[in-house]
Write a structure and sequence with these properties.
With 418 residues, the protein is α/β, with parallel strands linked by helices. It folds into 2 domains: 4-19 and 232-417, Enolpyruvate transferase domain (UDP-n-acetylglucosamine1-carboxyvinyl-transferase, Chain), CATH 3.65.10; 22-229, UDP-n-acetylglucosamine1-carboxyvinyl-transferase, Chain (Alpha-beta prism), CATH 3.65.10. It has helices at residues 22-31, 48-58, 87-90, 98-107, 126-134, 165-175, 191-202, 234-246, 262-270, 309-317, 337-342, 372-384, 395-398, 404-410, and strands at 4-7, 13-17, 38-42, 63-67, 72-76, 84-85, 109-113, 138-142, 145-149, 157-159, 181-185, 206-208, 214-218, 227-229, 250-254, 274-277, 281-285, 296-297, 322-326, 346-350, 353-357, 366-368, 388-392, 414-417. The protein has a 4-stranded mixed β-sheet. A 4-stranded mixed β-sheet has the order 2-15-17-16. The chain is elongated. The relative contact order is 0.15. The protein binds uridine-diphosphate-2(N-acetylglucosaminyl) butyric acid. Uridine-diphosphate-2(N-acetylglucosaminyl) butyric acid (EPU) is lined by residues 23, 26, 95, 123-128, 162, 164-167, 188, 306-307, 329-330, 372-373, 400.
């Protein structure tokens, strides 16, 4: 079993290049099969989730070929020969559920294993199903599979009861060829929702309003292939911005869309970091600064992202004063807190609220990643802890961060994988 070992207390400085966005990649790769043609997806992050997803596509007859050291993927979906995605694959990556929308949209039938729960609570897909049903699909759940089929799909108005990134994207995929116009109201506005809409439009779809809470999909008869480069990873970028803050460092985070990080930049400024933005970079300078605690509430975009909540909690653990985090997106996203406490953090949890009293220092020990962002939070904690921090269960980190030890080492961290 691999471990990441960090010897903390090094100030990080220099430049780091951000990879393509995981959550855009895991939606755009399945979206490519809607086209019945060949697509080249570029700027992919080289991470486990992308590798698993390409295997999932191959299991239904799609030809996938990685190029450019894994950063591009050629997807030929002209000969899909199976509409059934088995549990063995889907249990490894939740985003396989996008194949439900993509197959239903293109073939009007799909069978995909029900995704299981995950380490931060129940993850229902009722809003995806509500959308498919409204478009005219019949949905059955049998033997652990969601089976969807439709004689035809007809555009309609769908009002989401909760703002869901996954449901918004899945309904767009299913509605691309639907007769007439589909309107998704109370839609998610995350950058990767916009990226998927832009990709589908490149293929010939007609989608308007992505990035607002009303998305309109005007059904088309045919799509074609395209080359598309996905957006940079907002959460990876945010993690390195926090790495700069927590080590009193000075890091330039490059190849990003600064606007996507407005909520984090605002909080880091409030904490006393100096933030400079350019067209495609943000520089976070925290050298010789005493950082003070702030309160955070996670929200849908453009609010503070839940996927940066564990990382900012780690920063608050070593900032002066008391910070309160309210998690509004997931039921149970504080599981990493017990691990942070093993490093000396002072955090108490009451339902969805964490009260974090800043400490002068954390001290290294063995800890265990409980999910992807929890793993990132533990790496950040290791960077600032006295002595050695050993992180176990790093398979989670590999699902979403490309070459994290290499990128951090190049900024001056003492980090290695054994
Ligand atoms: N929800 C429902 N019903 C649904 C769908 C969602 O009640 O049918 C609820 C969820 O239980 C949750 C909230 O709505 O409370 C938001 O869920 P959403 O559907 O937006 O999440 P998701 O699409 O499953 C994506 C990201 C997550 C990120 C969330 C929120 C991907 C592959 N995953 O999940 O990313 O936390 O949006 O922004 O895009 C991560 O990258 O670490 C990660 C977990």
């Amino acid at each position: 079993m691999s471990q990441i070992i960090i010897n903390g207390k090094k100030k990080l400085s220099g430049e780091v290049f951000i990879s393509g966005a995981k959550n855009a990649a895991v939606a755009i790769i399945p979206a490519a099969i809607v086209s019945n043609d060949i697509c080249l997806i570029e700027n992919l992050p080289v991470i486990e989730d992308v590798a698993i997803l390409s295997k999932t596509l191959e299991s239904i007859g799609v030809k996938c070929e990685f190029k450019n050291n894994g950063h591009s993927l050629l997807i030929d979906s002209r000969e899909v020969n199976n509409f059934c995605v088995e549990y063995d694959l889907i249990k490894r990556i939740r985003a396989s559920y996008y194949l439900l929308g993509a197959l239903l949209g293109r073939f009007r039938k799909a069978e995909v294993a029900l995704p299981g729960g995950c380490n931060f609570g129940s993850r229902p897909i009722d809003q995806h199903i509500k959308g498919f049903t409204a478009l005219g699909a019949e949905i059955f759940i049998e033997h652990g599979m969601i089976k969807a089929h439709a004689k035809k799909l007809i555009g309609t108005n769908i009002f989401l009861d909760v703002i869901s990134v996954g449901a918004t994207i899945n309904i767009m995929l299913a509605a691309v060829y639907a007769e007439g116009t589909t309107v998704i109201e109370n839609a998610a506005k995350e950058p990767h929702v916009v990226d998927v809409a832009n990709f589908l439009n490149m293929l010939g779809a007609k989608i308007k309003g992505a990035g607002t809470n009303t998305i309109k999909i005007f059904g088309v008869k045919k799509l074609h292939g395209a080359e598309y480069s996905i957006i940079p990873d907002q959460i990876e970028a945010g993690t390195y911005m926090i790495a700069s803050a927590i080590t009193n460092g000075n890091i330039k985070v490059k190849n990003i869309i600064p606007k996507h990080l407005d909520s984090l930049s605002a909080k880091l400024r409030e904490m006393n970091c100096e933030i400079k933005e350019g067209d495609d970079f943000i520089k976070v300078n925290a050298s010789n600064k005493k950082l003070k605690s702030v309160n955070i509430k996670t929200m849908n975009y453009p609010g503070f992202p839940t996927d940066l909540q564990p990382q900012i909690a780690t920063l608050l653990s070593v900032s002066s004063g008391t910070g309160i985090i309210t998690e509004t997106v997931w039921d149970n996203r504080f599981q990493y807190v017990d691990e942070l406490k093993r490093l000396g953090a002072d955090i108490s949890i009451e339902n969805r609220v964490a009260v974090i009293k800043g400490k002068e220092k954390l001290t290294g020990t063995q800890v265990c990643a409980t999910d992807l962002r929890a793993g990132a939070a533990l790496i950040l904690a290791g960077l600032v802890s006295d002595g050695e921090t050993k992180i176990n269960n790093i398979k989670y980190i590999d699902r979403g961060y490309e070459q994290i030890e290499k990128k951090l080492s190049s900024l001056g961290a003492n980090i290695k994988r054994i």
